[in-house]
Amino acid sequence: MKPLRDFHAKSMTELELLAPAKNADFGIEAIKHGADAVYIGGPAFGARYGAGNDVSEIKRLCDFAHRFHAKVFVALNTILRDDELEDSRQLAWQLYEAGADALIIQDMGLLELDLPPIQLHASTQTDNRNPDKVKFLEDVGFSQVVLARELSLDEIAAIRAKSSATLEYFVHGALCVAFSGQCFISHAHTGRSANRGECSQACRLPYTLTDEKGKVIAEDQHLLSMKDNNQSENVLALAQAGVSSFKIEGRLKDLSYVKNITAHYRKLLDEVIARHPEFCRASSGHSTYTFDPLPEKTYNRGFTDYFAGGRQDDIGAFDSPAFVGEPIGEVSEIGSNYFTVNAGIDFNNGDGVCFYDSHGDVVGLRINRAEGKKLFPLEMPEALSEGATLFRNHDQEFERALEKESAERRVSVAVHFSETPDGFALTLIDEDQVTVTVNCQNGKEIAKNAERALGTLKEQLGKFGNSMFTAESIKLQLTQAWFLPTATINALRREATEQLEAARIAAHPRPSRASPAANPVAYPQEELTYLGNVFNAKARQFYEKHGVKLIAEAYEANQEKGMVSLMITRHCLRYSFNLCPKEVKHLKPDPMTLINGSEKLILKFDCKACEMHVIGKMKKGVKLSLGTIRPATGD
Fold this sequence. Notes:
Blueprint: E1 13-21, H1 24-32, E2 37-41, H2 55-67, E3 71-76, H3 85-98, E4 102-105, E5 119-122, H4 131-139, E6 144-146, H5 153-162, E7 166-173, H6 185-190, E8 207-210, E9 216-221, E10 228-230, H7 235-241, E11 243-248, H8 255-275, E12 279-281, E13 286-289, E14 303-304, E15 326-334, E16 339-343, E17 352-356, E18 362-371, E19 374-377, E20 389-394, H9 396-403, E21 407-420, E22 423-430, E23 435-441, E24 445-446, H10 450-461, E25 469-477, E26 482-483, H11 486-506, E27 527-528, H12 537-545, E28 550-551, E29 564-569, H13 573-576, E30 592-596, E31 599-606, E32 611-616
Parallel strand pairs: 1-2, 1-11, 1-12, 2-3, 3-4, 4-5, 5-6, 6-7, 7-11, 10-14, 21-25, 27-28
Antiparallel strand pairs: 7-10, 8-9, 8-30, 13-21, 15-16, 15-20, 16-19, 17-18, 17-20, 18-19, 21-22, 22-23, 24-26, 29-32, 30-31, 31-32
Helix pairs in contact: 1-2, 4-5, 5-7, 10-11
């Protein structure tokens, strides 16, 4: 029998699994599948266009999450115009009143407003990749900081050594090639600003790479498209380096992704917690599943752990930005309306498979009927040839399992049933020590069959049905076996269950707002270029107050002229094609060029910082898209 949680174990570090929520229903499923917290967009000002939710929906999600002492974080993480500040302030209050546990923000102008006493998290868009920056954010009142995806384990440890803020790190999902908050190519080319939630994803386009002499190094490849992040092998190492919030990317992903990936990391974190007593769960309950979580079954561009262990080869998804899937074998025979695959797996009607044609393009097809290894597609593709490698990117059987109710989460309770002078009392004590007692006045009638009466009593007391609870232990404190009608026992249990659920919500440990340091450290820079993303007067006021002397306007203000860095990235195409001056001594870090149609981007290499800068200019006539931000709509 597992022990109840020691909720007051201060020496233990809580490990938080943070899952994405496209909407309240997705968030509820994430919590069922083991998330300790979820992050979701509100009705406005969230950096994922198309992932907004009404405040009433966020309240519904909070009500569900708080039963498990799980948390709800709301993304309010775009940069804001001056005329949007008041709407954002009002929305912050609405979200607080709805029960949200924290706001994820990018724009420092918000800290100059009358915000509610809600915990603040620094979005990854604030470019959090060095100890001094994270320490500053902690000093001005941020409790949790979302680290840059590019950080290594050693860099994380260096940040932890300087800051006591909760460190949040992306462990799974799509990777932006640029440092978050430092990518302006979408706005420069289309007017759709990534800092305002409307990225056009130029990084997923095909490019041709040429050297300084015009020699083609790579042609028509997706050279800025990264494989997907997968830190499955690094969960313990990340925890030991100082990460305590493990974040899954994907507020625009489908529900099967949320279920599968959340369950996968729940199992990994539980294994770490079971073996390392210095760590514990950040919320209550235990999830069980009707499926085996398999990350490779869900949308991905191939996997990489990026820079966690330092710079490495093969982090790019250069061939295709699409989900190709898992390799399953080679085509061995082609008939008029079928083909046969030399594979070691079983196929299902409705499976999706694909292959690369002679041009390197991905061709997909749906299997109408599978007879062993003989597959009958809806339509035979002309480009398919014998010997072609086949991939499966849709496992129909796996997806069907996830379409159904696929997880159940229960909180353990100890059940105590005892006598009182005028009847009986039922006490429920959950794993967080939340306790309720319900009494019933009942005439005491000695049971004719003591063994049967006690057995029935225990059986009925342990029947928690579709509630959120499960009986961990049942203890009877009786002077003798009494007869109680089954209906009486069930009514008592139901009343106690309802009271315990209400008591848990009331006892939810909603985090409080951190107080700024009395003497905060100065901002690490005295000058902010357009890279500082200062888009309103309140943000300017904030930085001036913290020691910044020169402050340029955000790129979205359209004040930058000529060629500037539109992306700053740790991904380096010189390294990718064995042209790194650090690796090959006679080479120089000469500029290179990326070409997409008539579009040309210059690549410059900062070898000291080990960074690549993608240089370009704003297209003529481009203006900031104003359709990204909608006013707050209240409840």
